Amino acid sequence: MEGVKSRRAQYAEMTRAAVLDSARELFVQRGYDTTSVDDIAKSSQVSKGAIYHHFADKKELFAQLLTDVQQQAMRAVTAAAEATDSEWERALAAAQTYLRGHVENPEARSIVRQAASVLNHDRICEIDEEVALPFIRDTLGRLGGAGMLQPLHIPTTARMILSVLVDATLQIAESDDPATAYTEVDKVLVALVSGLLRSPESA
Q1: What's the rounded Cα separation, in Å, for the pair 139 and 94?
Q2: Looking at residue 201, what DSSP letter applies?
Q3: How far apart are CA 132 and CA 166, in angstroms?
Q4: Per-residue pLDDT for 100 more than 70?
Q5: Of 138, 12, 131, nearest to 68 (Cα)?
Q6: Reduced to 3 states, what is the DSSP secondary structure of residue 124?
Q7: Which of 28, 38, 104, 112 has the highest Cβ tally under 10 A?
Q8: String of b and e for 168-197 (b: at least 16 CB within 10 Å)?
Q9: pLDDT, average across residues 19-38
Q10: Using 50, 70 and 90 to split pLDDT, how confident is the model at 10?
Q11: What angle do CA 20, 26, 119 make, to 5 degrees?
Q12: Which domains, ranges and CATH numbers included, belong to the chain?
C-alpha cells in the first residue's frame, strides 16, 4: 500500500511539474491573457481536471510561477552570500545577486513584468515577503550583531529594503536594456544600503 501511495505521489509531482513548465513557457511566449487553461492542458498533456487538482485557477498557477522565480533567485542569493568574508560583503553580494538573476533570466523578467497585471498588490507582497523577507531580516541582524548597523528597527528596515529590491527588479524587468538598468539601480542600491551603516569606514 505504501508503494502505491509513493507511486501516486510521484505521479502527482510529475504532473504538477509538467503543468508549471508548460504554463511558464506559454505565459512567456504568448502572455498570460492570451493563454488558456486548455492551452496549458494540451501543452502539458494532462487533463484540465488534473490542473485544477493542483491549482485553484490560472491566476494561482501564475502565482506559483512567480514564487518559483523568487525562490530561484533566493537560492542564488544564499550561495553568493555564503561565499563572502564579511557581513557587509554578504549583504551587498546578496542584493546584487538577486537583481542580476533577473538580468540574466529572460523568463524571470517576463513573469515579474506580467505579475502586476495578473495578481493584486497584496498577493505579490505576500509572495515577496514569504520568500525574501526572512533572509533580509537575518542579514540585518548579522550586520547589527557585528556592530555595523545603525540603531534601526529591523522588521521595518527589512520591509523597506524589500520594497526597494522589488521596485528595482521591476525596473530591470520592464527595461529594453536590462544590463544598463541593473547598473543604474545597483548604484542607487549601494548608496541606500550604505546609509544604514554606522559609518562609511564600516563598509
Answers
A1: 9
A2: G
A3: 10
A4: yes
A5: 131
A6: helix
A7: 112
A8: bbbbbbebeebeebbeebbeebeeebeebb
A9: 97
A10: confident
A11: 70
A12: 1-55 (1.10.10.60), 57-195 (1.10.357.10)
* Three-state secondary-structure class, residue 197: strand
- In angstroms, rounded to a whole number, what is the distance separating the alpha carbons of residues 35 and 49? 17
User: Quick one: cell of 32?
Assistant: 498570460
Closest C-alpha among 124, 197, 192 to residue 164: 192
How far apart CA 61 and CA 50 sit, in angstroms, is 12
Which residue type does 153 have?
Answer: H
Q: What is the pLDDT of residue 169?
A: 95
User: Can you tell me the mean pLDDT for 15-38?
Assistant: 97
Distances (CA, A) of 174 to 13, 25, 74: 33, 19, 21
Beta bridge partners of 149: 197
3-state SS track over 145-193: HCCCECCCCHHHHHHHHHHHHHHHHHHHHHCCCHHHHHHHHHHHHHHHH
- Polymer length in residues for the chain: 203
Confidence grade of residue 202 (pLDDT, cut at 50, 70, 90): very low
Asked if 112 contacts 181 with a C-beta cutoff of 8 angstroms, the reply is no
Amino acid at 124: I
149 exposure class (CB count in 10 Å sphere: 0-12, 13-18, 19+) = buried
pLDDT in tens, 107-137: 999 999 999 999 999 999 999 999 999 999 9
Burial class of residue 18 (count of CB atoms within 10 Å of its CB; 0-12, 13-18, 19+): middle
